[in-house]
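Final report, results section. Input specification for complex C-07:
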Amino acid sequence: MHVVFWIVFIGLCIKTGALLTAFFVSLFVSAQGASDLYLGLNLSELYAFSQFHYIGTVSLLLALYGIKAFIAFLVVKIFMKFNFSSPFNPDVTALISRISHWALEAGVLALVARGYTKWLTNHHGIAVPIDWAGEEILFFAGVLYIVALVFKKGTELQTENELTV
Amino acid sequence: MKKISIVFLQAVVVLIGLVALIILIRFPLTEGRAANLDLISIYADPFIVYANVVSLAFFVGLYKAFRLLGYIGQNQVFSTHSVRALKHIKYSAIVLSMFIVAAGVYIRLTHNEEDDPAGFLAICIVTTLASVVVATAAAIFEKILQHAVDMKSENELTI
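Structure output:
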């Protein structure tokens, strides 16, 4: 699992870095770059319509990818500190709570971004082919919040147990 | 806050179940072969029957997830009920993934030469991966909860 999450983290970093590079290329080198930002993501129509909205949309996407990469990094940190013989410890509990908060922020950001791109499509007829998946991230945040609560209770129980002579 | 998030997650679980049920009922009717068939012939197709039977494992897993959330809401998270619910979720996910793999292999080997099974196989791969992830997560949490249950019972025995 540790190795898997390192791979996920590195993959998300590469994804964010590639999108960031393509974004800068499309802004400062050639506008052609907007037609294939990352894995066929074509925002050339949006770029041609308004550079302001193009920067806004890609910034939101970059922020979302950045948060996902950071969450993967926190998961890697959990696996570094996790011990199956005594799974409940304050560090792991704090990390899980932190992940659930970041996931909630990512979910809200994805919903805002989806609303923004929907507004662009409805009011200006600009298609933005991005699947923000806000609901899925929010569901993930909810599950993590419950896991964090369970770990908090478990940590209290384990501390109590360790204090008992 | 805790209660709200648990009710929210339970509602999401129910919603997932309803959507899955609607897909199971509606999807066979929208297929091309359904155009010239009556209702019984549509649903009596062996592959549709197989899909419906296999989906039982999915619904059992979903029901157990709903129950597990209920236990968490009732402050019974460190109990044998929760561990058992997680065990059921794990087994449901394993059974589901095995049956999906079997369906994928069957379609890969027996599909009509004019048909392209790539889409179906892609769905099989994705759903199998999702089931394996759920089974792994459930197994890890089962182990952690079992540890907590042992610790709790040890704690309760200490005077």
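The mean pLDDT of chain B is 89. Residues 148 and 154 of chain B are 10 Å apart (CA to CA). This concludes the modelling results for the funded period.
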